[in-house]
Amino acid sequence: MLPVLENLALDLADNGILVITLNRPSKLNALNAATIDEIGRAVQTALDNPQVRGIILTGAGDKAFVAGADIAELAALDELQARRAAERGQEVFCMIEESTKPVIAAVNGFALGGGCELAMACHFRVASDNARFGQPEVNLGLIPGYGGTQRLTRLIGKGKALELMMTADIIKADEALRLGLVNHVVPQAELLGFCQQLLGRILTKAPLAVGLVIDSVNAYFDKERHGYQTEANAFARCFASDDFREGTQAFLEKRPATFTGK
């Protein structure tokens, strides 16, 4: 039986495809701590449920997959709380990445900050033609904290990943496809159907072999997670900075930030 969750909608079809929908459209599906915990609970439920054979992760509405983290919640954290938040986000997103059941991100609209990180944790991504991707955390005096520095580099290479994270540029779906950040771009009206068909093809294959493909590809990368710990520590250090306080305050006050490098 699927749990009833406040910030997610779960829909399990007869063919074993579970659609997990981030369901905070009034907040553009922004990630707060409660939503990250619910994602973890939903994914664990899917892994434990033999009726679930594959997962599609998407966002409610036509504007955003996930527009980012909940900035008001982040602004209230201290350094220790920030490290714990980063480690919890990494833990949940690694659960997705290491799932032996295939997980596809159906990215509709904005996938920024934590939303881009969530999409990258999935095994691959299909974008609507109005999708937008970016890691704009430096605008807030922050860095990606849920695995973004690691996964973006793996997916598109060091040079371009550094450029996107340091400039905070937001790229369109066609550029994301060119860079290898997404696998397909389709019209928004066709997004979910395309993902269901694609996942349906995968589900005709041997489940054990599919799971072992996922595990073997993940094994190519360093699984000691030193990079993730480095990221979590750096994410936490940002919270002790004046730049973070200025960046988040400016965001909440809808004004340009003035950074001092402190």
UniProtKB/TrEMBL annotation:
Entries under InterPro entries matching the protein: ClpP/crotonase-like_dom_sf, Enoyl-CoA_hyd/isom_CS, Enoyl-CoA_hydra/iso
Superkingdom, natural source: Bacteria
GO biological process, one term: fatty acid beta-oxidation
Keywords, alphabetical: Lyase
One Gene Ontology molecular-function label: lyase activity
PROSITE patterns for the chain: ENOYL_COA_HYDRATASE
Family in the record: Belongs to the enoyl-CoA hydratase/isomerase family.
Protein name: Enoyl-CoA hydratase
Species, as recorded: Hymenobacter jeollabukensis
